[in-house]
Amino acid sequence: MPLPDETGAAPRLPRRLLLLGLAAQAPDPLAAILAPLAAVRESRATFVEEKELPELERPLLSRGLLAWRAPDRLEKHTIEPVEERFLLEGEVLTIERRGERRQVALDAAPEIRPLVEAVRATLAGDAATLRAHHRVAASGGPARWRIELTPLSPRVRAAVQRIVLEGEGAAILLVETQGRDGRGSMRISPAR
Amino acid sequence: MRRLLPLLLALALLAAAFAGASRLVTLRGDIADFLPAPATPEAAFLLGELRSGAATTLLIAGIEGAAAEDLARVSRAMGDALAADARFTLVANGAPRLAEEEVALLMAHRYALSPAADAFTEPALRAALEGVLDGLRSSAEPLVRRFAFADPTGAFLGLLRGWADGAAVRTAHGVWMADGPRALILLQSRAAGLDTDAQGATADAVRAAFAAAAPPDGARLLLSGPGIFAAEAAATVRADVKLVSTLSFLLVGAFLFWRYRSPLMLAVVALPLAVGTLAGLIVVDAVFGHVHGAALGFGMTMLGVADDYPILLVTNRAPGESLRDAARRLWPTLRLAVAAAVAGLLPMLASGFPGLAQLGLFAATGLVGAALATRFALPALLPEGLAVRPLPERLAHALLRLPARRGLVLGALVLVAAALVATGGPRLERDLAALSPVPEPVRMLDGQLRAQVGAPDVRTVLALAAPDAEAALQAAERAVAALRAAGIAGAIDHPARWLPSAATQRARLAALPDDATLAARLAAARDGLPFRATAFDPFLREVAEARAHAPLAPADLAATPLLAARLAPLLRRDGEGWRALLLPAEAIDPAALRAAAATVPGLMVVDIKAETEALLADGIATALRWGAVGGALVLLLLGAGRGLMGGLRIAAALAGALLLTFAALAAMGERITVFHLTAALLLAGVGLDYALFMSRSGVEEGTDDAARALGSILTCMLTTLLTFGLLALCRTPVLHATGLTVCLGVASAFLLACTLAPRRDAPR
Q1: Closest by alpha carbon to B388, among B322, B327, B334, B314?
Q2: Cis peptide before B467 (omega within 30 of 0)
Q3: Above 60 in pLDDT, residue A4?
Q4: Which of B165, B195, B338, B546 is the most exposed place for a label (fewest CB within 10 A)?
Q5: What InterPro entries does UniProt report for this protein, alphabetically (chain A) (predicted)?
Q6: B69–A54: do the CB atoms touch at under 8 Å?
Q7: How far is B531 from chain A, CA to nearest CA, in Å?
């Protein structure tokens, strides 16, 4: 089957209009933002996380290390105040805390997957996965950018309404989570 | 061809009648029908469990042959699909699966269901709040927040954890995973275990779910459970029987063709057999309202005797004699043979085993029907002129000379009998599993899956009865407390572990601190922690609400299928009342258990293995007893028909054949099962015919007659050997036992009938 020719000898009228409409839009900013991220095979960073919960009088603070290895390994190693390892590798999430080790298959946890993919798919530069779980709004350019994610699943949205990622170039600097009644923010400083 | 028309027409008519009868007759399969009526409450309980116990509805599925994460994906997909299938009451694969309303119900009743008695002191509350704070710091925070502010003491999650304790399976990738790797799914069907059709459908549903889960290449589904067993066993037996019957049909057909120089003989043999089977089916169904599958199977075996009638008729016809005259001449002998066989079968009707009674009635009716068909229908339908090929002369000579060696043979029989007695006789099979037609590999797989899924191989069951569910639950609580007090340690699964009695639930709720006290303790416990003052208001509110809830009763469990499924095997309606079961998880010294249980009135200890063995031994003993009565009846009849000496001669041939058969079986290391015994019945019937017909002619008749009698019996024996011989090669216990016994027996019966026949000169 011959493909419609974009440079356009003479496709039929409706298709031509459609193409014109697409051409009128700005180029996809998400693709431009994700391209440098996708090029990073490995990265390390420190983080400071702040959780504000309505039941608590003051926010909970924690800090630790983040490690990313393409294509799908993300480790969040909390050091203070309680050590915890949160390892996302392939389809399996492993959490180790106080000597207890729990494994969760992402397949079995549809409520968790959109949340962890928000960060991992961004690091991987994987727009398809982001869009599979979220409505994506991207702004800014490769130098300074902002991605706003709204979970597609109503069940997930009941708990987490919005995730905002901000960054510069190939680094994520801030992950903000707006929950049902609580907020979390993780500030990230790339190592070296 | 014209002359064949009546016979062929009659066969076609019979075939049509079969099609009609098979639609009218209800077939049933229930091995318990072949066990004797229970004499003790323990035996009655065991029989009930065998028939309809919860264990009979359990299915275990294993998925293997791929990487663990793929297996987990398939397991989850199957779990989701099957959980939505109304045919299953329980689907467990390790993945948490609680519906919203189930969570709501269990949350509402958490303080009545969980035993946390001292969770509401100030120090305990302080520790609980620190735990909540720690949870909020972790990445499990969303999960913690979901319950922690309403349930800081963790009563609900503790309840779920306690329930999961029973399963000793490792979890990987979110589902149960045994080594291999092999993902495991535990299923319970709504259909009873003995409903073979429904069990087949549930098994198909599991297979369909597996196929729909898009298993990766190489992934295999293993399925086990009593329902699967029944289907598997039926399939194995059917396949064996199909192969064997095809082969033996060809062999018998070829043999009869050679012997009678006509394919017609097959139709001649088929006619009385068909009449007999049809008569047996209809009479048994009319008397019992259904026909037991096993009775039909064994009964058909028994009708192997009827096979001989037409052969005896056709072969014994003297040259120039019409078939009608031959039938008239042979009728007294045939009549005596049938009467004796029926007399031997009659006691089974009174034996008290429904299965055995059916078998007896089926065989007796069938034999009479076949004999009548041989006497009256065959001569009318059959064209004259079925020539019989004479026996090879040397063989006939040798066989007809056997009576001369009578002393030697009798001596040998005595020796064999002495040897059999000296070695303690043939060993009886006491293991019910050995009777199972389920192929050995399938049983091994079942054992392996059971062990992996942590379903204990229950050896001892404690049972108690009560007028209602609440009384049964209270009795179970008291019994467990008494067992503990008597020093029985180790986990015991019991219904109140899942649903405490209403009394216990009320006591737990009454023990909750009042609102003001709890608020004060909570405020003190919160001191210095970053929680807002209102953070735990849901907790205070729900404790107050919990006090007002009526206790959860078995009737309320419709909304919580998980709990209902766990409770069902342990607590159920039993006739007018209710029955609670206590299952020790590990082997406990039976003596200690019995001693401890004796302190609890009404608590019955059932040692499954011992009781089963006792039942089985009882069954075989009863069968033997009734067999002896039948034997005495046969002797009486023979004595009346042939005089004392003639009767004794025939009885000796018969007894000798049985003796030789069981001696040979013992020498081969076979353990005697009920299948061997039923096969011995056939053998006795056949042996009777051989002896009767061999000694029919008497000295006064010519050796030609004797040679014809010999030829007819040899033909009978060979067709029987060709029919049953191949069964001995099967691995299914019932077929193997039947085939082997009949083969050994028929050969010895034939030789003994020749030997013990009246002396006469050798044929010319």
Answers
A1: B314
A2: no
A3: no
A4: B165
A5: LolA/LolB/LppX, OM_lipoprot_carrier_LolA-like
A6: no
A7: 4
CATH of domain B1-34+261-389: 1.20.1640.10
Of A51, A54, A108, the CB nearest to B141: A51
Q: Which two tokens stand for residue B365?
A: 């009716």
* A60, A105, A182 member nearest B173 (Cβ): A105
| Confidence class for position B370, pLDDT limits 50, 70, 90 | very high
Tell me which range, A123-127, B391-395, B589-593, is most confidently predicted by mean pLDDT. A123-127
Overall average pLDDT of the B316-325 stretch:
82
Q: Which residues of B touch A82 (CB under 8 A)?
A: 134, 137-138
Q: Do domains B1-34+261-389 and B393-425+608-764 have the same CATH topology?
A: yes
Closest to B513 (Cα-Cα) out of B159, B156, B153: B153
Predicted local confidence at residue A132, as pLDDT: 93
CA–chain centroid gap for B527, Å, is 66
Q: Which helix (H) or strand (E) holds A176?
A: strand A171-179
> How many other C-beta atoms can be found within 10 angstroms of the C-beta atom of residue B423?
12
Q: How far is A158 from chain B (nearest CA, A)?
A: 12
pLDDT of residue A114 exceeding 70, the answer is: yes
Question: Is the Cβ of B284 closer than 8 Å to some Cβ of chain A?
Answer: no
Mean pLDDT value of segment B386-396: 75
Tell me the residue ranges of DSSP E strands in B592-704.
604-607
Sorted by where each begins, the domain ranges of chain A are 28-190
The b/e string for B88-98 (b: 16+ C-beta within 10 A; e otherwise) is bbbbbbbbebe
Test B174 with A53 for CB contact under 8 angstroms: no
Q: Is B166 on the interface with A (CB under 8 A)?
A: no
Q: Any idea where the domains of chain B sit in the sequence?
A: 1-34+261-389, 393-425+608-764
- CA pair distance B290, B24, nearest whole angstrom: 10
Could you tell me whether strands B88-92 and B291-292 are parallel, antiparallel, or unpaired per DSSP bridges? unpaired
pLDDT at B643: 82
pLDDT at A6: 38
Q: Are strands A182-190 and A171-179 parallel, antiparallel or unpaired?
A: antiparallel
How close is the nearest chain A Cα to the Cα of B287, in Å?
A: 57
Residues B226, B54 contacting (CB under 8 angstroms): no
B526 at A interface, C-beta within 8 A? no
Whether residue B571 is predicted with pLDDT greater than 70 in this model: the reply is: yes
Q: What's residue B637's pLDDT?
A: 84
Mean pLDDT throughout A24-50? 85
Q: What is the mean pLDDT of residues B585-600?
A: 77
Distance CA B60, CA B451 (A): 11
ipTM of the predicted structure? 0.78
pLDDT band at A174 (very low <50, low <70, confident <90, very high): very high
Quick one: pLDDT band at residue A42, thresholds 50, 70, 90? very high
Over range B746-759, report the average pLDDT: 84
CB atoms closer than 10 angstroms to residue B55? 15
Residues 41..80 of A with a Cβ closer than 8 Å to B: which? 51, 53-58, 60, 62, 76, 78
Q: State which of A129-133, B253-257, B430-434 shows the largest mean pLDDT.
A: A129-133
* pLDDT reported for residue B89: 81
Sign of CA dihedral B683, B689, B690, B692: positive
- The rounded distance, in Å, linking the Cα atoms of B518 and B513 is 6
Q: Which of A60, A62, A107 sits opposite B73 (nearest CB)?
A: A107
Mean pLDDT calculated for residue range B415-431:
79
Q: How far is CA B119 from its chain centroid?
A: 50
Which strand (E) or helix (H) includes residue B544?
A: helix B537-548
Fold category of B393-425+608-764 in CATH: Multidrug efflux transporter AcrB transmembrane fold (1.20.1640)
